[in-house]
Design brief:
The complex is a heterodimer. By secondary structure, chain A is an all-alpha fold. Chain A has 14 helices and no strands. By secondary structure, chain B is mainly α. The chains are: A mainly alpha, B mainly alpha.
């Protein structure tokens, strides 16, 4: 009897949560379906998930309407450029905060954490003025540079470094390692899970970033995919070309979704982790 | 720490200490240029009249702030931002908790369900907005086609009273699964014995939630409330694409107004005053919740 009740309970659970999950998935499923829909199908047909005679024509047209190759390239340079510099800056800062004693350490630590509350997105105006002075408007470096330091990354890494056993550090010193060599040979390998988690969060955040690259760029030269998609969508929306919009959107969201599906556990753990300690 | 303080100022000059500062230097240079300096320069810029029309900025004291006080759009923006905050944060957090409770069991379907709720967090906000533009399209959009009988065919984004709720729904959809992760992590830290004890005492499911689950998730809830609130003031990408702040400023939020005033109206002094206001809001939220969070965590430990 109890077992039957349990079975029924699980079934009800699966159906209810499944229905909710379906609602959550619907916009994405619709975007995929519509990106494959030939342009002729209009009216309420557009809203359906079923596609008669699927085609890749929308992707071809979207691809030729907006310079996606250029946009992808810019986004890739921006995302990996930011990450590369961040990994250096946060490793050095995290080591100092985790292992060194120096005058003003706590004050400086708090000053670093200020960036968690005041993300660069709130400072678009003054940072724009700075970049104009530096002559970095319309450059990929201009998009990247406000993010080269990361309080979140420094904070996560400091936690990881603090749990590195002192003995290992001393052993490295006895072997003749200087501080930089110790960081590289002892701390970095032991903090790899944290570095990977932070990298995933950083990549997702900067791939998706929109307002800042929009403000910094007014030509295609340095534009990223999100900015390209937004202007593409605006022009296609006026013609109600939903197949094209869906095609463009899928082109932009697919890379991250594919990587997510491939490394699902890593992604979920990274996001959980960054929040837990942040 | 204590030792270092005891040695006083001369400790600063020891070689090891200078080394420590060198480690911080790269981060500090970028933080100083793009976080500390802009906070100060916003304060300064907000005291000047500076726009496309004025060649040299003119000192106007608190003039820009006075102008904000008299600006009816600013007042509307404040009301919108408050509505957006109150309308999205509690609902998103409650949904996140509900999802986590529903999906905190081993089952074949648990992972796919979690994925279904989480994936919107990985989409760019403008990409999500591009999709949701269609959801809200009058006539043949998803809502109109599937819910016409309930909603009666309305122009969501074109109506001053419905546009903000429409944008809020998208925000809730996008973030609930992300915050769910924090609750799932929080649930793992609750010892199973507590529920065991609860069951022996004959506590019902709801009672267990009330007196075990929810209180022990307190730090998680505070943390999620903090990021959700800060987020509510820092993301406006969807506004840019879906409504442009309209109709009639019905969806104009604080950061979007900063963007508008600075980069569309080129009134830099006023935009700087708005930035200062935004910073004050963010700092208030952060200080309030950090204080709470710290006290709470000490209490837990």
């Amino acid at each position: 009897m109890a077992r039957v009740r349990r079975r029924v309970f699980v079934l009800v659970w699966a159906v209810c949560v499944g229905a909710l999950a379906f609602v959550w998935l619907f916009p994405l499923l619709w975007a995929f379906a519509t990106s494959l829909r030939p342009p002729g199908q209009l009216g309420s047909q557009i809203a359906s998930l079923w596609v008669h005679h699927p085609t890749l024509g929308n992707f071809r047209e979207a691809w030729s309407d907006a310079p996606f190759l250029r946009l992808y390239y810019n986004t890739a340079v921006v995302v990996f450029g930011i990450l590369a510099v961040q990994l250096v800056t946060i490793t050095l800062a995290a080591y100092a905060f985790a292992r060194r004693e120096f005058w003003g350490r706590d004050v400086l630590f708090r000053l670093f954490l200020l960036q968690l509350m005041v993300a660069p997105s709130a400072l678009i105006l003054p940072n724009f003025v700075t970049l104009r002075t530096l002559g970095l408007l319309n450059t990929r470096l201009g998009i990247m540079i406000p993010y080269f330091a990361s309080a979140l990354g420094m904070f996560l890494l400091r936690q990881a470094f603090r749990s590195v056993p002192r003995d290992l550090e001393d052993a490295a010193a006895i072997d003749g390692c200087n501080s930089l060599q110790t960081i590289w040979n002892v701390f970095v390998p032991l903090a790899r899970p944290t570095l990977v988690a932070f990298s995933i969060v950083s990549i997702v955040y900067h791939y998706n970033e929109f307002l800042w690259p929009l403000i910094i760029t007014d030509t295609e030269r340095a534009r990223t995919v999100t900015v390209g998609l937004a202007s593409f969508t605006q022009s296609a929306e006026s013609g109600a070309q939903w197949n094209l919009i869906a095609g463009g959107t899928v082109i932009v969201i697919l890379p991250l979704l594919v990587v997510f599906v491939l490394f699902q556990r890593r992604f979920v753990e990274s996001f959980m982790f960054s929040g837990l300690k942040g | 720490m204590v030792r270092a303080a005891g040695r006083g100022g001369s400790a600063l000059l020891r070689p090891g200490h200078i080394g420590s500062y060198l480690f911080l230097l790269p981060s500090f240079v970028f933080l100083a240029t793009f976080t500390y300096y802009p906070i100060l320069s916003s304060l300064e810029l907000s005291l000047y009249r500076s726009s496309a029309a004025v060649r040299h900025p003119v000192f106007v004291g608190l003039g820009n702030y006075a102008a904000l006080g008299a600006d009816p759009i600013f007042r509307q923006v404040l009301v919108n931002s408050a509505e957006f905050l109150v309308g999205t944060v509690p609902v998103t957090v409650a949904l996140a908790l509900a999802f986590a409770l529903l999906l905190n069991r081993p089952h074949l379907l648990t992972t796919p369900f979690r994925t279904a709720f989480f994936y919107p967090a990985l989409l760019p906000l403008v990409g999500a907005a591009a999709i949701w533009l269609f959801v809200y399209t009058p006539g043949y959009g998803l809502l109109d086609v599937y819910l016409r009988r309930i909603s009666g065919g309305v122009n969501w984004l074109g109506s001053p009273s419905l546009a903000l709720p429409a944008v809020m729904i998208l925000t809730i959809w996008k973030n609930a699964g992300y915050y769910m992760l924090f609750y799932l992590a929080g649930l793992q830290t609750i010892p199973a014995e507590l529920y065991e004890a609860g069951r022996i005492e004959g506590a019902s499911g709801w009672r267990q939630f009330q007196s075990i689950t929810f209180p022990l998730l307190g730090p998680t809830t505070l943390f999620v409330l903090l990021i959700a609130s800060i987020n509510a003031f820092q993301s406006v990408d969807h506004i840019w694409l879906m409504t442009g702040g309209g109709p009639d400023n019905a969806t104009n939020l604080l950061l979007f107004y900063v963007y508008q005033v600075a980069f569309m109206f080129f009134d830099l002094g006023k935009a700087a005053a708005l930035t200062v206001f935004l910073l004050a809001v963010l700092m208030t939220i952060a200080t309030a919740s950090f204080g709470l969070l710290e006290r709470r965590i000490h209490y837990e430990v």
